[in-house]
Design goal:
The structure is a single chain. It is built from 8 helices and 11 strands. With 247 residues, it is α/β, with parallel strands linked by helices. It has a 7-stranded mixed beta sheet, sandwiched between helices. It has a 4-stranded antiparallel beta sheet with strand order 5-9-8-7.
Length: 247
C-alpha cells in the first residue's frame, strides 16, 4: 500500500481526533443512517474511511455487522480500542479507499466526513481518485446496495475564494481543489505538508456516481453534527448523497 501525506497526518492526529467538535453527535448520526438505509437486522455494512470507527461502533451496537476500512493505522488502533470499550465486534481493515478489492459483498456502504473522499495526496488525480473510490464501493456492494456519502461542498469553496486566491495558487476553480499548509506533531517534532481538499458540486457528484454504477436518490445538505433531509445551503460545509447500486 502506497504512503501518502494524509496517512501520516491521521496516524499522528488519531489520539486527538475525537476531540473535534463534529464528532459529538455520533449516536444521532447512527440513528439517522439507520433511518435512511433501513437495513435488515444483522445487515453487513462497509464503512469506507472509518477513521476512529465512531459510526462503525455505534451501528455495531445496533446489531449490524460492520466492517471499517481506513488508510491510517493510527486511526484504526483508536477504532479497535473504541469497539473493545463498547463490547462490540467490528472488522477493521487497513487499505487505501482508491484501490481496495474484496471477494465478498456488503448490503450497504458509508463514506463519511472526508474519511477518504475528497482528501487528495500529491499523487492523486482530482477526478479519477474520487471516481476510483466510488467504483470500489460499488464493486463491494450487493445488487441494490445503498451508499451514504458526505463530502465537501464545492459551492462553499467557490464562494470563499477571490481571483487573488486563484492567482496565488490557493484554489483551482477547474478541479475545485484548495491547497493549504498542514502542520502536525510527530515523535520526531513538527512536520508540514501541503494539504489538498477537493470540493464537489451536485451535478459533478451525480455524474461521478453514474460513471461508477450508482443511481443518485438524494443530494442534500449534510454537515457533520447536523444531518437532515434538507436542501443544500451553498455556504454549508458538506453535502450528503444517497445512492443505489444499479450495475
Amino acid at each position: 500500500m502506497s504512503h501518502n501525506e494524509w496517512q501520516e497526518f491521521f496516524d499522528n492526529h488519531a489520539p486527538d481526533y475525537m476531540n473535534n467538535i463534529f464528532t459529538k453527535n455520533t449516536d444521532e448520526e447512527a440513528a439517522f443512517i439507520r433511518s435512511l438505509l433501513q437495513p435488515e437486522p444483522g445487515a453487513a455494512i462497509l464503512d469506507v474511511g472509518c477513521g476512529t470507527g465512531r459510526h462503525s461502533v455505534a451501528l455495531a451496537k445496533m446489531g449490524y455487522k460492520m466492517t471499517g476500512l481506513d488508510i491510517s493505522e493510527g486511526m484504526l488502533k483508536e477504532a479497535e480500542r473504541a469497539a473493545e470499550a463498547e463490547g462490540v465486534e467490528v472488522e477493521f481493515i487497513q487499505a487505501n479507499a482508491r484501490d481496495f478489492k474484496f471477494d465478498r459483498k456488503w448490503d450497504a456502504a458509508l463514506c463519511l466526513c472526508e474519511g477518504a473522499f475528497g482528501l487528495l495526496s500529491s499523487e492523486d488525480d482530482p477526478v479519477m481518485q474520487p471516481v476510483s473510490i466510488l467504483k470500489n464501493i460499488n464493486e463491494a456492494l450487493k445488487p441494490g446496495g445503498r451508499l451514504i456519502l458526505t463530502c465537501l461542498n464545492g459551492m462553499k469553496k467557490i464562494r470563499n475564494f477571490s481571483k487573488e486566491g486563484i492567482d496565488n495558487g490557493l484554489f483551482d476553480p477547474v478541479n475545485i481543489t484548495e491547497k493549504f499548509m498542514m502542520e502536525f506533531d510527530t515523535p520526531e517534532g513538527k512536520k508540514q505538508f501541503r494539504g489538498v481538499e477537493k470540493g464537489f458540486v451536485p451535478s459533478e457528484l451525480a455524474i461521478m456516481l453514474k460513471m461508477s454504477g450508482f443511481e443518485t436518490e438524494h443530494i442534500w445538505g449534510g454537515t457533520a453534527g447536523n444531518w437532515g433531509r434538507r436542501g443544500i445551503d451553498p455556504d454549508e460545509y458538506e453535502i450528503m448523497v444517497i445512492a443505489c447500486k444499479i450495475t
